[in-house]
Specification:
five-stranded mixed β-barrel, 385 residues, alpha/beta, single chain
Length: 385
Amino acid sequence: MAKVAHLLYGDRKVFTVSAFNRGVGLHLGRLPNVWIEGEVTELRRNPAWANVFLTLKDPKTAATLAVTIARRTFDRLDLDLDEGETVHVAGRAELFEQKAVLAFRATTIERLGLGGHLQGLEELKRKLAAEGLFAFERKRRLPRVPRAVGILTGADAAARGDLVSTIAARFPATKVVVCETRVQGKGAAAAIVSALGALTAHPEVDVVVLSRGGGSFEDLLPFSDEAVVRAVATAGVPVVSAVGHEQDTPLCDLAADARAATPTAAAALVVPSVVELESALAATRHRLDAGVRAHLERSRGRLERQGERLRVAPRLLLERRRAALDHAGARLQTLSPLATLARGYAIVRSGAEAVRDAATVSAGDPLDVQLAAGSLRARVEEVSG
């Protein structure tokens, strides 16, 4: 093993920080591989990273140990680990010399079973799901433009600041009511329930954002407490859960009316963007203007067509009436006695009466014979039956 160099000040051997850290690291490297048992917390994996990071926790003492494992090795194991599972990890101790941070470099991981916390959460999850607390049908629609947004948060200035600033930027007219409370550790669940009740009782609060920054599996446990989950599900106004990071899923997420991965995303859910609203209003105004203009054009065209029909209608009516009169005149002309006379017939009268029967006259009676052109005077010479 290479020797760590030191400095001499008289008879005193002095090591630099780098040399000391390197020496400790070399001694740790001589330790044998060991197996360690613990509960998985803070599991972090990214396809762009060469390593997967996690923390092992002793559930009895809460002692923790940072663990790294090569991402390819971890992916090959295909464990699909969840927070709170108990595992056995093989590897050796190592020291990150730059900051003298002790960690454990794993070569393999074996699942032992669900941790106590995770097992309890799974049982609670099944129980509440059976009661319908997570059902999609009971989730409420968020108000379009709330009068006030309630923010329930811990002493997390970043999360609270992101929410408040984003809401103010998106829709300045919306009020913000902030309620800070204990969100981790002993008594956190009761404090969250109390704060949620106070916010939902506020006369102007129309929606509440439950916000907390990232943390360990244990840190987020209060948001999976049964009392908290029931309070979220039965809150008097819709609740948006923005707890932890995107990969975290406390049970309050399932009971909330909506879930947001970040405080900024939560703000976008609870208030509209005034810029987007103004743009939408301008687009609506443009459509209304275009609709009114199109309606006016259609009405003008319809009036013009009706006017043209009105101008043409009298002439058409007159033509139809003239044609009808001509037709009637032709029929009358056809039925006129004069037309009959013109065809060679004559009207024979005895006195004032037309003679229709020869028996009505006698020989020697005078007759008037009307022709188509002129008339004749005649006398009956003989009557034949």
